Amino acid sequence: MTDTKQRIFDAAERLIAAQGYSATSLRQIIAEAGVNLASVHYHFGSKEELLDELIHRKADLVNRKRLELLERAKAAAGPAPVPLVAILEAFLLPVAEVATADPQFVQVMGRVIGEGLMPQIVGKYFRAVGERFFPEIRRSVPELTDEEFGWRRHFLIGAMCHTLYGHSEAQGDFETRIGYLIRFLAAGFEAPAVKPAEVNA
Amino acid sequence: MTDTKQRIFDAAERLIAAQGYSATSLRQIIAEAGVNLASVHYHFGSKEELLDELIHRKADLVNRKRLELLERAKAAAGPAPVPLVAILEAFLLPVAEVATADPQFVQVMGRVIGEGLMPQIVGKYFRAVGERFFPEIRRSVPELTDEEFGWRRHFLIGAMCHTLYGHSEAQGDFETRIGYLIRFLAAGFEAPAVKPAEVNA
DNA sequence: GTCTATACTGAGATAGAC
DNA sequence: GTCTATCTCAGTATAGAC
Fold this sequence. Notes:
Number of helices of chain A: 9
Largest sheet of chain A: none
Helix content of chain A: over 70%
Oligomer: homodimer
Structural class of chain A: mainly alpha
Mean pLDDT of chain A: 91
Order of helices and strands of chain A: HHHHHHHHH
Shape of chain A: elongated
Strand content of chain A: under 5%
């Protein structure tokens, strides 16, 4: 990657993490990076594609770790359903790990999710991983209807985003926070169904 | 309220509900309302203050109902702690009620929360109600440390926002959805503490 | 291939005439 | 109260230097 592109990248990450995406103008970014305005469009095409690349790298890092942990948990479980807590750990611990190593990651993600720029970007970079994880969770709560399971999945995503990516005041240790979250979510998923699924004959 | 102001108000609500706040320009709003650009600034001061007024009314409606239900639940409980489910119902059912009667409410709120415009607005219109509710919830889970309780509160808010206000595809009946959410949250709050609080002598 | 200079359109905001 | 005209700054596009 050329020096100019890298400097745009770094400046954009720093500024978006600190101020948010909409609040950060390309002119701010190029001032901080010490490059020309048009070079952003030369290297990235548009402001949105710059953001896309930013998310892309971060997301890939987390997603690889997630799938790795999931495979390990599946191997350990054998034919039995993977324990719910193990699935949740595989999904959430990688986020804590990356967040601890690179705090800007959480901030950028938080900004972008928060600003509602995600319908497409989330789809592009996170849907595939979700489709690997949720069927596993589904196996461990077979007594739920599909409808109720779908909503519990929403609750998980909501709690996770708000907690990890939320522009929260108190930060604290990510590992601890994730530990609390996993306990909370596991209990929520294992709660008796409001409308239990019909048991098949 | 003057006719012009009301028309701006209505057009803004419709457009923001449908497209989001950032994606809706004042010029779109005035075109739909059939008024002059400067009249927006005359009546509201700025685009952001227009949004603020929009949220203000919606929020007040929900918050009044919330506090009413909470008082009723407290009266029914007497000196005993209010049952957790009753507190959650008092907090969440009013949202479903308003959402059913006026679907644009949920959409506008969803947009605004999603777009991260809320640090101030949430504080202005929702913090006070939160400070009435969370001490009640706290009483029903005394075995948690303050730290862990604080995070569970975050999980609740995250799940709620993502579920109610989330730009979700599947909508479905709000009452049902809230029922699922309450079950999930109650179980999460009542899960054993990761780090139990020291028991006082 | 890479970067600079500059121009274009549309955003929110504002001053002042009426 | 309302409207016109105008300001600043945003993202974007492109012509042309190197």
